[in-house]
């Protein structure tokens, strides 16, 4: 596919030039790989299935560790998703593994909306990536990619056919994520029932148009093995973290009264095939498909939804710039309108408040005036009183002085008389 | 203006970069990094093989630009680097073709294959640079060309239905040829490098180094290094993009001792000591191009092709291109960085080259 890219470019006027010696750019893949190794990889798995089908146990078995988490109960009111991230290291490769499990899937009485939280979760991861990609200052090369790369759909081992819940959910998910259906707890089915079950499932998926993930067959190295594996889908798996001694080796197995089921025995179950396909051969392809197919589809739909187009109805190429301009002007116009409204409201409020305050001020003034008048009246009264009092006092004083004068006159007259008598005497 | 490359990539840093969970009905918990014990082989390291196979299939693009006055041996050097006739020498031009009046940009693409790895190599030649009497602003056409490639890539990336693999015509590496005067850098050299070191990875090379003796060479290199430092010119590998201690020590060594590489180019082979080597024959001896005692061509080749090829592409993509993109999307004035797409505009491409970042 991309080898043809180079070929096409050759056709476009590039000539292939022979090399006269060893140049050394064949180390380029190594340089690239070294860079990626130092950065670390990330891989995100979504496990969808009813409660009790062994999702957590299978994850534990696949990655040879005990991931934390308690088993879910059957009494969840709705479907929820539980996500955990782990850092795994093997030789010098670091993997950031995120495992998302559904909790409460298939437990409700009304399961019409069961698929919705899952679809929303997947979309939310795409949205987060899209937002990061659309940022002005972005750091995509160190962005933690949380998009789901593989969805393991756990089918209950009824032995008959797919449940309608399964069909509906898978149909909703097939255009958003790489679906790998697996038959869980397959030690409950015998070999012959298993073949019939697998055929039934595949035919039901095909007839309902569900697109499950096909392992790629274009690279000659892995085409053969991928081709045979494609025929074995869905894988019938058994998970177990208990180790039992079988022969002289410790193996992961489940002990029953009638025998022991070995997890890694290809004759017992398809666990080894699943591990090969999921991790050891196609991990990179899963990541690539998620990015180039599912994410691009989401991005295209989202951008079209937002109103951006590549070409307008007259099939003249619309420059993204014009669309942006238009949208932006619209947006700015709205903003301006809102601003105006707010301003109006503000002015209104201010006016009202002002009027109120004026009223209050007027009242206060009136009160003040009244009080003043009262004061003045009082004052006047008091002054009148004072005046009358003063008049009285003056009158009193006058009488007093008059009386004194009379008295003094009297005494003077008496004195004058004495003086006169003295004078007469003298004379 | 920060270029945003982190110093280390610890797990803590990675979990900090997880975006805030948006209000959605099923809210998954914020990822916690736990380190479980591994009890057996899982096969995670096979992803290296998977990745390698994938990259071999897709092939690589590499665009290298050579800038320098005519006659400095640019085309010869590129031919020697890639051991094939990828560049047409000016001396083989038609006699009637004069030196161009302005700087022209000539990009020629070739496909070369080695060891199963296919590479589309594009050599961008700049005839006419520094050849006029008045060389003012002769870097402008070059800067314009580089920005045009970024613009092309940006337009593709911003498309709604976009190609699976966007054709990459961005200039990954610019070899700037310094004339071996033995004294110091010319003003033209300084001006060019000052302007362009912000938009593209510049690797300065001292051309025609067979005109200098060993002492003259080392003195000249020291002077050039000093002058570049004094003028604040960051050539590749830039100090600020060293990611970890290992890179830093390795790159420091290159920056302080080897660069700028003093090279001699040749596409003729001669017999020396029973071996056929590329070299230049002079009356006083044969200068072997790949002999480290004679010139530093081998160092340049190893540096550009064998160890830092991928890094050149990455720095161009993650830093120079992102800087250009941020500038373009910001140019409608006043939007704070980090704003989402709603409300941003791609303004029309400016007629003059974008002002280089401060």
Automatic annotation (TrEMBL), chain A:
Residues 379-390 have a biased composition (Basic and acidic residues). GO terms for cellular component: cell projection; cytoskeleton. It holds the Pfam family Septin. Signal peptide: none annotated. It comes from the Eukaryota. Residues 407-417 have a biased composition (Low complexity). PROSITE patterns: G_SEPTIN. The keyword S-adenosyl-L-methionine does not apply. Residues 379-427 are annotated as: Disordered. Residues 39-305 form the Septin-type G domain. One of its GO terms (molecular function) is GTP binding. Its main location: other. Keywords: Cell projection, Cytoplasm, Cytoskeleton, GTP-binding, Nucleotide-binding. It is found in: Cell projection; Cytoplasm, Cytoskeleton. Belongs to the TRAFAC class TrmE-Era-EngA-EngB-Septin-like GTPase superfamily. Septin GTPase family. Filament-forming cytoskeletal GTPase. Septins polymerize into heterooligomeric protein complexes that form filaments. This is Septin. It comes from Balaenoptera musculus.
TrEMBL record, chain B:
GO terms for cellular component: cytoskeleton. It comes from the Eukaryota. GO terms for molecular function: GTP binding. The keyword S-adenosyl-L-methionine does not apply. Residues 58-331 form the Septin-type G domain. Residues 1-29 are annotated as: Disordered. Residues 1-10 have a biased composition (Basic and acidic residues). Keywords: Cytoplasm, Cytoskeleton, GTP-binding, Nucleotide-binding. The keyword Lipoprotein does not apply. Belongs to the TRAFAC class TrmE-Era-EngA-EngB-Septin-like GTPase superfamily. Septin GTPase family. Septins polymerize into heterooligomeric protein complexes that form filaments, and can associate with cellular membranes, actin filaments and microtubules. GTPase activity is required for filament formation. Filament-forming cytoskeletal GTPase. May play a role in cytokinesis. This is Septin. It comes from Balaenoptera acutorostrata (Common minke whale). The lineage of its organism: Eukaryota, Metazoa, Chordata, Craniata, Vertebrata. The gene is SEPTIN3.
